[in-house]
Give the backbone structure.
Amino acid sequence: MMKLFSKILIIGAVLLFSTALYAAEKKPVLNAGDTAWMLTSALLVLMMSIPGVALFYGGLVGRKNIVSTVTQTFTIACIVTITWYVLGYSITFTEGTYNSIVGGFSKAFLNGIGVAALQGTIPETVFVIYQLTFAIITAALICGAVVERINFGALFFFIILWSILVYAPIGHMVWGGGYLAEKGVLDFAGGTVVHINSGVAALVAAIVLGKRKSPVRPNNVVLSLIGGSLLWVGWFGFNAGSAVAANGTAGMAMLVTQVATATAALAWMILEWFSSEKKPSLLGILSGAIAGLVAITPAAGFVTPSGAFFIGLAAGIICYFACTKIKKALGYDDSLDVFGIHGVGGIVGAILTGVFAVKAVGGASGMIEGNGGQVTLQLLGVAVTVIYTAIMTYIILKFVGLFTKLRASDEHERSGLDLSQHGEQVS
Amino acid sequence: MVYEGSSMKLITAIVKPEQADNVKRALSKIGVHGLTMTEVKGYGRQKGHTEFYRGSEYEVAFLPKTKLEVAVSSKNFKKVLDTIQKTAKTGKIGDGKIFVTSLSAVVRIRTGEKGEKAI
C-alpha cells in the first residue's frame, strides 16, 4: 500500500515538474490567425512592387521609356527572389561569425526550412516570403533615380550584388540581431532598412550615372495614381504586417499609417497650392502620400495617432522642399525623387520615431516621455545606414562599371530605352 | 487637262478640339455632308504652355488642335467659310486658322463621278 502510494506521488511529482518545465520553455505554437494575416501581408507587400512601384514610376517617365521602367521593376522582383533564396535570407536572419554586421550561411538555399519550421507563431516559410517582399521593394525603389538612362545589363548585375551586399547586412543589423538591434534602434517596419537604404543608394546611383540628356514631362500621371494607390493599400501589409501577428499592435500600426499618410498628402498639396505653381496637383498629393507612408514606417508600432499626425505633417513639408527646392539647388538628377521622398522621408521618420514613441503602444519611450536618448539612438541608426549604403553602393557601381557601361549610349537615350533596350513600345 | 478651270475649294480649318463638334453640327445643318477630321498638334500666337511636376517646369510647345478638311463647290464656298469661322470662335487666343486652297479635281471612288458632282 505504501509502495503504491509512493508510486503515485512520484508520478504526480514528475507530471507537475514536466508541466512546469513545459510552461517555462513556452514551446512556440502555430497561431492560425497570425498565419492568415501574414500570408495576406506578404501578398500586399508584393503588390506594392508589382504593379505598384512599376505603375507609379511608369507614369512619371517620358513616353519612350515606359516599357523600360516597368520592365526594370518586374525583373528586380525576380532577381531578388533568387538572391534571397540563395543567400539573402540566411545572411539577414541567421547568426554569423561577424554577427554585428552579417548573419551566417546556415540557411543558404533556404536549407532546412521545412513545413513544420516556425518563426514565432507563424510558419517560417511565410516569414521567408514576407521578408522577401521587403527585399524586393527596396531594390525596386532604387530604379526611380536612374530610369531613362541606365543600361539594363548594368542594372541587372547591380541588383544581384546590391541585394546581397547591402540589403541583407542592413536588414541583419536592424532586424536580424546585429549591431543596431543590440543598441536598441527602433525601426518597426523598415524606415532604415527599406527607405533610407534605397533612398541613399538611389542618390549615389543618380550622381554616379549623371544627368539625363533632356528630361521630358511625365507621360501619364493617372498611371501613377493607380500605382501610388496600390502602394498605399499594400503598405498596410508592410506596416501592420510588421507586427508579425494579428493583434492590437497590427491594428494600431494600420491606423497610424492612415493618419500620417493623409496628413502628409494634404500638407504637400497645400504647400504647392500656395507656392509659385499655384495649383493643387495630382502628382503633388500622390508624392505627399508616399512621403507620409515612408515616414510612418519606422514609427508604426510605437506611436499614437497624434504622433502620426505630426510625423505626417513633418514628412509632407520637409519632403516637399527636398524634392522641389533642395534637389534643384544641389543639381543632381534623381529622376523620380527616390532620395527626396524615401531617403529624406525615411530619415524624418526614423528621428521622429525617437521623439513620439509611447511606452503604452510599443513598449519603448521617446523624447515626449522623457527619453531623449532614443533620438540619439535613432540618429545612430540613420548614420550607420547612410554611411554603409553610400560606400557600398558606390563600390558596387564602380565594380559593375568595369564589365559593362552603366549608361545606355546617347543614341539609345535619345530614341528611348523602350525600343533601344527592349524592342517594344507603348503605341 | 480636263480639270483646269475648276472653281472648287478645299477649306482646311485648324480649330480648338472642344469646338470641333460645334463646327460639325453647324456644317451638317447647311448641307455639308462630307468632312475629314484629324487630331493634330501645333502652335501659333498662343504659343505653348508650362506644366509643373514636383516643382520642375516643362515647356509644352505643341498644343492639341483639330484639323477639319472640307471640299466645297464655288456656290457653297462663302457660306461654309463663314459658318466655320463663326462656330469655331470663342474669342480667346488659340482659336486657330482657316486656310483655303483651290481644288483642281475631285473623284468619287465608288462611282467615278468627277468635279462638283463628286463633292
